[in-house]
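Async update (no meeting this week)

Hi team, since we skipped the sync, here's where things stand on the single-chain job. The sequence we agreed to prioritize is pasted below, unchanged from the tracker. I ran it this morning and attached the output directly underneath so nobody has to dig for it. Comments welcome in thread, and please keep replies under the output.
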Amino acid sequence: MKISTKGRYALRMMVDLAQNQGDGYVSLKDIAARQGISKKYLEQIVSVLNKPDILRTNRGYQGGYRLAMSADKYSVGDILRLTEGGLAPVACLENNPIQCERAEMCSTLFVWKGLNDVVNRYLDSITIQDIVDRSLVNESFDYII
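Output:
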């Protein structure tokens, strides 16, 4: 499995919103400048994430985006499933129940199920707030002598 640029940038955008929404709505222009991502690409990402339970939008002067919930309510897995369309390592696990005609006799299916479970459990255990908190810890190390 390989996470696309869209998934990685969506995660960076969500973290940026969590870090900066204390100022109200955050413009894509500001996120683009801070993250080094083109505004046009962020617009594509917003079109995927622009759902009532993910983002709030405000148009016009002082407009922009903000998280619809607190940052601890969003898991990395949730964001990546939205942007990637799923996290299954093989096509036969994309549907539940499995619709593969070979599933009953597949000798390797347990391998892919195990990988899928580990990846999803891991990504669902990390929230946007966890990333924000970790970045604050990393920024607090000041090595000036």
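Quick observations from my side:
The beta strands are 55-58, 64-67.
Helices lie at 5-20, 28-35, 39-49, 76-84, 109-124, 128-140.
Reply here if anything looks off.
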